[in-house]
Design a protein that fits this description.
- With 151 residues, the protein is mainly alpha-helical.
- The chain has three helices and two strands.
- A two-stranded antiparallel ribbon has the order 1-2.
- Strand 1 (112-114) and strand 2 form a beta hairpin.
């Protein structure tokens, strides 16, 4: 058995049930017809396409809004996780820095110090250790060809 609504009001009710449209939208559609001076008891045939399109679009808008809300909630959860991870890594970094500072203090107490660049280590030896630094001398000898090479 099929039900084909004959009036505009019946067709609006049918489409509202099929699409699950909210009551506010249904009331807006009815008031649109009344505002234009079209009776809701008139025949629906001339308006079927427009009504179907309106309710289909409203349903799509609701579905897209629900997807957007879901995506927004997911994004908020991701930002929360990112924030927690960032905070955790920051705390770990502070712990590592504090351990390095403590190690540096211990090394300095033992007489070992590091330079600002971090690449060289200076070891302090007690007593007088004077050194004499000279310019490096290189001895370059002339090359003489071997027995198998051209003379």
């Amino acid at each position: 058995m099929t039900y084909e609504p004959k009036t505009i009001d019946e067709h609006i009710d049918c489409l509202a049930r099929l699409t699950g449209a909210p009551a506010t939208f249904v009331e807006q559609v009815r008031s649109l017809f009344v505002g234009k001076g079209i009776s809701l008891k008139s025949e629906a045939q001339p308006f079927l396409g427009a009504l179907d399109e309106a309710f289909r679009r409203e349903e799509n808008v609701r579905a897209n809004a629900a997807k957007a809300q879901n995506s927004f909630s997911q994004m908020q959860q991701n930002f929360t996780r990112f924030g927690k991870s960032y905070t955790s890594q920051g705390q770990q970094l502070k712990q590592v820095q504090e351990k390095l500072r403590e190690k540096t203090r211990r090394l300095q107490k033992q007489g070992v110090s590091t330079s600002k660049s971090g690449n060289t280590v200076h070891v302090t030896i007690k007593g007088d250790h004077r050194t004499f630094v000279t310019k490096p001398v290189r001895e370059e000898l002339p090359m003489v060809p071997g027995p198998e090479e051209l003379q």
